[in-house]
Amino acid sequence: MQAFMKQLYWWLTALFALALVYAFFARGYLHTWQQQFDLVAFAAIVAWVVINAGLIYRRHFRFRDLQLENVDAMAGEEFEQFCVYLLKRNGFKHLQTTKGSGDQGIDIIGVKKQKQVGFQCKRYTGQVGNKAVQEAWSGQAFYKLDEAMVLTNSEFTDAAKELAEQLGVTLIDRPRLKRLMRRLPS
C-alpha cells in the first residue's frame, strides 16, 4: 500500500509540473482547449499543494502537545518514530532507524557533537531490566558507535542502573524523557 501511495504521489508531482509548464508557457497557444486545461491545471496545482501541506504538517507537528500518557499508549514502532522526532528536536542530526528485527540492540543511530550515538527504545509498562542495557552495549560495539543509550517511558531496575554505570551506557528514564519533551512544539 505504501509503495502505491508513493507512486501516486510522484504521478501527482509530475502532473503538478506539467500544470505549471502549461500555466507559464503553453496557455497562450491552446486557445480551443484553454478552459478545460485551465481547470485541470488548477485542480492539479491545488491538489499537490494541499497534499504537501498535509505531509509537512504531519511530519513537523505529528507529536505536537503530546503528553506522557499518549506516549504510554503508543505501539513499539510508533514509539521509535516518536523517539526519532524527539531526538531531532533535541539537537541530534543524521537520525536513522535500524531494521526492525535483528537490529543488534540499537533502534536509532544519530549524531550530536560529532559523536555517533545508538539508542535502544523501550516503551514499557513495567521496569526496564538488564537486557535492554546489554542490547544497547552490544549494539554499540556492533555498529562501532561512540555512545549507547537506552530511552524508555518507564523506569529502570536498580540492577539495570548498576550495569549501565559499569558499561558506560546512558539511561533516559521517564523523568528525563519528560524533560526532553519540553522541546516539542506546543
UniProtKB/TrEMBL annotation:
GO terms for molecular function: endonuclease activity. Residues 72-181 form the Restriction endonuclease type IV Mrr domain. Coiled coil: none annotated. Keywords: Endonuclease, Hydrolase, Membrane, Nuclease, Transmembrane, Transmembrane helix. It comes from the Bacteria. The chain crosses the membrane at residues 39-57. Gene3D superfamilies: 3.40.1350.10. It holds the Pfam family Mrr_cat. PANTHER family: MRR RESTRICTION SYSTEM PROTEIN, SLL1429 PROTEIN. This is Restriction endonuclease. It comes from Lacticaseibacillus suilingensis. The lineage of its organism: Bacteria, Bacillati, Bacillota, Bacilli, Lactobacillales.
